[in-house]
Design goal:
alpha/beta, 11 strands, 5-stranded mixed sheet, Nucleotidyltransferase, domain 5
């Protein structure tokens, strides 16, 4: 079985081909640079660019795999969550293609796609396990009971981890996207330079909150001269990042202990962060659990992860109708 994946949930445009053994045959991704001058994603710009790019990316996907649409058995497309205009580009393209070519179609939750990215590179990863999904718009801790069977343990109450990175980067004058720049500077900094707060949500031990951390950075720098931030940029980034890592790790370790799990997987754009990978790898060695994360190319939004989730659901006999619609706020559970 060959599945074509289509991903247009935010500012990336991607199509991918994978087989039923979860081998990636092709996975071109177009990432928009147009948003940098605005300091963030502009939804209208994103969807307009995706309208222009979806067909060329689809054609490149088939060409690089040496295939035609006749070789494809089904189409998996992101139906949410995400920017509604962007989602509609992908969903309508996939539905039109499925109708014209007579292919099955299945709508996929973008968050399930991120989670499934680990299956593409780690065949030994089998449920049950704990999963941490961290991206620009989402931070969730999930108990994966079985394939396609999830229990939400906790999620962010305000900013997602990626949002906190971008907002702090903007405060420090690092531009957009900020996560990569904060991570790079933090590598040369001292994480103990300043102790930023680690938020705890009362009566909800698995919930996340990063808004207060962002505010604490603002308050810390408010009465200091601009030169202070400029001269201590590495250390400030390292201290901020360490607070994020500590909050993520504390909840993951708690879940591993409570549910007696020995496998932890992370996924999403923020899973590319070098300190997060380093910290969890070190803790895994000390604590004796197995730690999984995707390669950098599979951390960002891509269609291979959507196709992987599609393969798993299609094998279960699931499919969507051509009445499939997009949903900007589609929950994982």
């Amino acid at each position: 079985m060959i599945v074509l994946g289509v991903e247009t949930s935010c500012d990336e445009t991607s199509c991918a081909l994978i087989d039923d053994r979860l081998r990636v045959l092709s996975n071109p991704v177009y990432s928009q640079l147009e948003h940098q001058k605005y300091g963030g994603i502009v939804p209208e710009v994103a969807s307009r660019q995706q309208i222009k790019k979806i067909v060329p990316i689809y054609q490149e996907c088939l060409r690089s795999a040496g295939m035609t649409i006749d070789d494809v058995d089904a189409i998996a497309v992101t139906r949410g969550p995400g920017l509604i205009g962007s989602l509609l580009v992908g969903v309508n393209f996939a539905k039109g293609l499925a109708f014209a070519a007579g292919k099955k179609i299945i709508g996929i939750n973008h968050l399930e796609g991120h989670l499934s990215s680990n299956y593409l590179e780690h065949p030994d990863l089998k449920p049950p396990f704990i999963a941490l999904i961290i991206s620009g718009g989402h931070t969730l801790l999930v108990l994966v009971k079985d394939f396609c069977d999830y229990q939400l343990l906790g999620q962010t109450r305000d900013d997602a981890a990626g949002e906190a990175y971008d907002k702090v980067a903007k405060l420090l004058g690092l531009g957009y996207p900020g996560g990569v720049r904060v991570d790079k500077l933090a590598r040369a900094g001292n994480p103990e330079f300043h102790k930023f707060p680690r938020a705890v949500v009362k009566n909800d031990p698995y919930a996340f909150s990063f808004s207060g951390l962002k505010t604490s950075v603002v308050m810390y720098l408010r009465d200091l001269p601009e030169s202070f931030a400029e001269n201590n940029l590495d250390d400030i980034c390292a201290s901020f990042q360490e607070a994020v890592v500590d909050m993520l790790a504390e909840r993951c370790l708690r879940a591993l202990d409570e549910f007696k799990m020995d496998r932890l997987a992370i996924a999403g754009g923020v899973a590319a962060n070098t300190r997060i990978r380093e910290h969890f790898t070190q803790v895994a060695r000390k604590s004796g659990f197995n730690f999984y994360y995707p390669s950098l190319d599979l951390c960002t939004d891509n269609a291979a992860m959507i196709a992987a989730a599609g393969v798993i659901r299609l094998k279960r006999g699931e499919a969507s109708s051509l009445g499939l619609d997009a949903s900007a706020q589609l929950p994982l559970v």
